[in-house]
Amino acid sequence: MDPARVPQFLLVNGDKIPGIGLGTFGSDKYSPTEISVAVEDAVAIGYRHIDCAAVYSNEPEVGNAIQNVLKTGISREELWVTSKLWNDKHDPNDVGPSFEKSLSDLKLDYLDLYLVHWPFPNFHAPKVDVTSRDPHAKRYIHEAFMATWRELEKLQRRSLVRHIGTSNMTVAKLKRVLEDAEIRPSVNEMELHPHFQQPELFAFVREHGIVPVGYCPLGSPSRPERDRTPEDSVDLEDPVILAIAERTRLSPASVCIKWAVQRGQIPIPFSVKRSQYEASLQAVCAPNFSTADMAALASIDRNCRLIKGQVFLWEGAKSWHALWDELSPGEP
Ligand SMILES: NC(=O)c1ccc[n+]([C@@H]2O[C@H](COP(=O)([O-])OP(=O)(O)OC[C@H]3O[C@@H](n4cnc5c(N)ncnc54)[C@H](OP(=O)(O)O)[C@@H]3O)[C@@H](O)[C@H]2O)c1
User: Fold this and answer.
1) Among 27, 57, 222, which residue has the most ligand 1 atoms within 8 Å of its CB, making it the best to mutate?
2) What is the spatial order of strands in the sheet that 161-167 belongs to?
3) Given this model, what pLDDT does residue 28 score?
4) Do residues 6 and 18 make contact, with C-beta atoms less than 8 angstroms apart?
5) Which ligand 1 atom lies nearest to the CA of residue 29?
6) What was the pLDDT predicted at 127?
7) Which of 47, 218, 228, 257 for a ligand 1 pocket mutation test, highest count of atoms within 8 Å of Cβ?
8) Which of 80, 227, 231, 267 could serve as 223's disulfide partner, Cβ 3.0–4.6 Å?
9) Percent of the chain with pLDDT strictly greater than 70
């Protein structure tokens, strides 16, 4: 598909970001090689935006794919490449080296966007189960986050990255960051799918000129076991989505993608299967849904957060809701 047909979202400084990206987190299921093959092919068929992260442990292979596409005549300026600072690199001394490692793994001389992956310096070993805890885990400490953020600001001032942003934030945390940032986040990456629409945070970021990028846009059907709980619902089986899919001759996944873009967020679906990532790309250009269909899709929000972040909890924390500022005052 001609990438010129893909809607672009306007960032606060007037730059444009492609309205769909390809995710690259393999959910502990797909190998770096499978993902790099998909990245190369996805760009060949029209994707221009790739969502990467150091913790996905595949940036060297994704970098090879990017190098290959640059040899086909696609210019660096046509691509949008995002990476993210992992939680064990929040110390201000670690930010620059960690960024440089992603840059060199991706074989680029600048990034389009660099995000703080989570607002906590808490991390877990790869592939752990949901009960695992980092004994040094801490709750959100604004001053510590801002010390990390200052280092991202320096990277942008040095033109090593065009934009900086946040991920997994709440309105309360973002308010404080907006008060203290010298360079404000251009983007906030957040979980967004029809069963988890985060209306308050979504409205807040847009009011502040921050573009929402939505992860798990299909409800992450292949997410790892540690990110599954019995109460999770399945977007792709929702009767409203199935009915709209049948009537519009789109797949349920394509309905989720079209809804996302039309609502005003950038979906970053993951797939290594051409039939899937091609369908998602085509979905962004499908005819707009009617106001009635958009209202029906708005009504199926179930506040069903899938990526709860349990493994990032600190000693004594009562539940994962603490990570999202959802506990009553006084609760740990
Ligand atoms: N910032 C953050 O903290 C954060 C957190 C999570 C994710 N992310 C980013 O968001 C990306 C997407 O999230 P995700 O992979 O968890 O969820 P997702 O994109 O909602 O789900 C991906 C899965 O959906 C299936 N799928 C993909 N396209 C499809 C289609 N057109 N039709 C039917 N099924 C389709 C595939 O399952 P099968 O492989 O089983 O076919 C694929 O593995 C990640 O790769 C990552 O880049 C960021």
Assistant:
1) 222
2) 22-23, 49-51, 80-85, 111-116, 161-167, 187-191, 211-215, 266-267
3) 87
4) yes
5) 39
6) 72
7) 218
8) 227
9) 99
pLDDT at 213 over 90: yes
Distances (CA, A) of 54 to 11, 86, 185: 24, 6, 19
What are the residue ranges spanned by the domains of the chain?
Answer: 3-324
- Tokens representing 133 are 């805890």
CB of residue 234 inside a 6 A radius of ligand 1 = no
What SS3 class is residue 33?
helix
pLDDT band at 288, cuts 50/70/90? Answer: very high
Q: Is residue 189 classed as helix, strand or coil in its secondary structure?
A: strand
Which residue, 229, 226, 238, is CA-closest to 297? Answer: 238
Indicate the angle between helix axes 252-263 and 291-298, nearest 10 degrees.
100
Distance CA(206)–CA(87), nearest Å, equals 26
| Tokens, residue 22 | 């390809």
Ligand 1 center to 223 CA (angstroms):
8
**Does the beta carbon of 33 sit less than 6 angstroms from any atom of ligand 1?**
no
Q: Give the active site residues.
A: 56
Under CATH, to which class is 3-324 assigned? Answer: alpha beta
How confident is the model at residue 303, as a pLDDT?
Answer: 98
Query: What digits encode the pLDDT tens for the residues 291-307?
Result: 999 999 999 999 999 99
> What rounded mean pLDDT belongs to the chain?
96
Residue 293 near residue 244 (C-beta atoms within 8 A):
yes
Q: Average of pLDDT values for 55-73?
A: 97
